[in-house]
Amino acid sequence: MASDRNMGRRLFLICNYILLGLITLICLMPMWHTLAASLSSPVELNANKGLMFFPVGEITFKGYEIVFANPSIWKSYLNTLIYVVGGTVLGISMTALGAFTLSRSYFMPANTLMLLIVFTMLFNGGMIPNYVLILKLGLFNSAWALLLPAAINVFHLIILRAAFQGVPAALEESAKLDGANEMQIFLRIILPVSKASIAVIVLFIAVMHWNSWFPASLYLTDRAKYPLQIILREILIEGNTNMTSGGANAAISIYKSLIKYCTVMVSTLPILCVYPFIQKYFAKGVMIGAIKG
Amino acid sequence: MNQKNKRMTWNKRMTWSTIVVGSLLMATLTGCSGNSSQQKASQEELQQHLESQEGSTSLRRLVPEGKTVTLKAWRPTHSSIGTLMESWNDTLFQRWMEEQTGVHIDWITPVSGTEGDNLAMLISSGEYPDLFFDAGLVYPTGAYGLLKDGVVIDVAKHLDKLPNYKTELERSSVRQIESYSDEGEMASLSSFTQDDVQDATWYGILMRKDMLEKVNMEAPQTYDEWYDVLTAFKKAGLEKPYLLNSDGFPKLNMFIGGLGFGYMNYGGSVQPFYQVDGKVRYAPLEEGFRTYLEMMNKWYSEGLIDQDFLSLNSINAEFAAYPDPRTGSMVAPISVVNVIRELTPDKNVDYIAVPHPVVNKGDKIHVGTESRLVRSGMQISSKTKNLDLALQWADLFYSPDVIHISNYGPDESYYEKLPDGTYRFNEKVYANEDGFAAIDMITSIADAPAVVVSNRTVTDPWLLEQAELYDSINDNAYVISSSLTLNDEESKTYNSVMTNIIDYVEEMQIKFIMGIEKFDKYDAFVERIRSMNVETAMAVYQKALDRYNSR
Amino acid sequence: MRALYINYKRHKMVYWMTLPVILYFVVFHYLPMAGVIMAFQNFSPKTGIFGSEWVGFQNFIDFFNSPNFIRVLKNTLALSLLDLLFGFPAPIILALLLNEIRARLFKRTVQTISYLPYFLSTAIIAGLIHDFTSSTGPITTMIAPLLGKTANLLSLPEMFRTIFVTTNIWQFMGYNSIIYLAALSRVDSEQYEAAKIDGAGHWKQCIHVTIPGISSTIIIMLILNLGQMLNVNFEKVLLLYNSAIYETADVISTYIYRQGILSHNYGYSTAVGLFNSVIGLLLIVSANYVSKKYSETRLF
Fold first, then answer.
1. Nearest by CB to B79, which of A142, A187, A249?
2. How far B528 CA lies from chain C's nearest CA (Å)?
3. CA–CA separation, C223 vs A169, rounded Å?
4. Which GO terms describe its biological process (chain A) (predicted)?
5. ipTM score assigned to the predicted complex
6. Dist CA A230 CA A73 (whole Å)
């Protein structure tokens, strides 16, 4: 019996490793393809169909040169960094606060509020009223126009609320007996034991701000405040509008697919580098669970 | 104890990051404030100054000496912004204008691709700028719609304050016909082509020169000859003898004009109708349309057309396909040939321009590409507090002192005078050291001529030669002018009918070409279009065309 | 009301802590929600939200009467249901499989790499799909014997749903699994010990400990997914489809987009958005009700 079970277990593990290895390969493939493509020669890249394991044609950094020749790119990198850090700090504070109070069983209006909040996930007034709101609040052309409206993502709030609900009530009870108020419970008990969930939400919020470009395109008029994504979009998309006004811009268009791949590398690499550091907290989350047991 | 310590560091780290972020944020939020050294002119002294020089046609300061004033202007972006310059204020011409007139322009430049939404929101928020450039291109009802909606002023009512513009406008009848609406209104200060000379066609039909030599054939002139050449290309091993756009139709009526039907293309926006002898026609109802689809169906099924043509659904995809050495022929900007020559590793690959195919040798075509002589130009907001200033500033663009500089810029080192008295941008522009595209260089020098020298931006004499090939057999007789206007009621009827029809036709034409629908269903297809009330939309258009013709 | 007052008296702090959150939702969500009245207007930017002409339910009637309404509704539902059926469980399975791995380095590598596709922009993803499914692309060549012909896969109406859903799984599986991995890390290890003592094998542990441990996360995610049912990834469809396969590929949002090119009608598109939202609300409320009834978990 026991050996049968062991055999089965071993077989499962082998299959599991193979399967996960395959999944990894399939998921790695497009990024690898992108990296190879971003170093390829532009014409051969355009003619190439299918998966690329190595750059085609002579290796060239032409695409990166074009991308980094853009005078706005470094400034926009810095802007994005500010928006991401600012947005994440604001976001996680607000989201955690909301998730905490709405997860307290003794907070009577919690469910009603939750319903009203979920409602906003489904219904929104669209672009125009939001634009007028930003204008009337005097947030136009300022970083707050990007940060404040995105302060709480309902999805994140729900996730975090579920996590806080899962914190054993005994912890809270004992703190209460020591005379702690709700704020202290939130800061000293709930936050520390929910590190893993907080880390996940921090990652989600950061990625959201990193990729965000549409609000910035609506609310910022000053080029010096543009985030990276807008500059990259400009590099990519421009030329389309010019195509109707004359053929003189054809040269740059030939480079478009090369540039496309380069912009992906430029815009994803930084966040990919940050990920392992956040991932560490997932592992810590596991550890805390183990110690508790 | 240990755990407490850990908690402390966690909290501390949070605090630190908050402080860092906070200060960073504050820095960006407070970092921007005005730094103008010149004094702003008061409304009173400005008005006085303007009145004193009303009617003047010469280049002059519009603001008292030592003072400055700011106008706001909405204008789409350009690829030269962000690469060559930071904003529209950085073009040599705009800097020069500001120096000469004392008027500073505060540009509102939306991110490319979001112009339409941006304009709609600007208008619905009620905070208009003083001037609009090219807003008609993205407003759903065009430049005329902006006037109808009361966003901009009727320029015709202010002609007495626009002496230079009035002179240019009255230079030719075509300028007046195209500038006024049916009701005698004028939505913008039109932009003219100098001496009413058409720009050369810059899209063309291109064919592989090396392949023609290889199969030992002449450049084809008729559709039958095209079939033979493409078949020969295929036999010679070429995978994609002919590239077709993802909607099954080549750009700008190229290639289909010889079958006697076409579409109107107004700077990117396509209108479905054309006209024959003053009567509005719709291509899918014409015999030539069926002939075209049957021909494409045959070519597609025999592998003469790129089997993946459906993927050419964006400018990027198209441009990626052009230099592909497996391609035999295509409709593309002629200038792309220079790039292919430069970039393709196989130095044998070369293209020549070939004429529009026709049914019988010597036929003329009537719907080619249309370069317009008169375009809609600057528009002035109905809410501007500086109407007189805006009018005088805009009028200066038509002043004899400004026209030349607005075309070639204030720096004489960028262009040269040719023996025939015309001008041409020089190597500093075309072969600039930094490798910027010529069109970007030109834009950064002279961005907004209101009276445009024709073929100003053509970079290569070879292009002009090729373009003549197309223009010589095309008389544009079937063209409908872009300045034709529908009133509110008419455009509502037109949109409600044509939106669905165009969608239906686009789906069906692809299915016919790919053989998904068989041609015995073709009559039912035409019948369906009629049942969707195409005649109503055509009647509406006919009315507008009649009004235009009687201008 | 009185109960509420007593509750407030007792937990003042919680009420005050919630205040900024409530303020945020009122200002940034409920105020602009006034914009939905555009759905009942012939909206024009010039006259704005409060000055545009009222047309009642005309925009909705136009939508329901449009020639392809049934087709796009059917396609939208088909894509969302398939995505729910295959795309929803995928990240859960991935998380469970990863959970069985003890080799830490391998686990982390798989985890990090599996979410890579999420970071590629839709334009790149679509470009890759176009290349791979072109008439000479690797996937086309691979499945040609099954199909019995070689053709551009994106020109075959019967292939679109498969392509769309498969690539969706690949794109989002890794990133979505993060949430389940975090949930798994919180499953009480005491329960595993207890199960082991009872003689449960790994499979039994998975069924009786692991899955129940993350079931509330799963249910919440499912309810949320149902709410977004009709919002198919618009940009991706737009970049992948073509008029030859409208039959299976044209969805509500792309159809509206094409209609909007000519008329740019904000009122009309708001009406369609509102229709999507109402359906989403119905789904989310009923899913929540069912879940409340049969399990402990609920969203509100």
1. A249
2. 12
3. 26
4. transmembrane transport
5. 0.85
6. 10
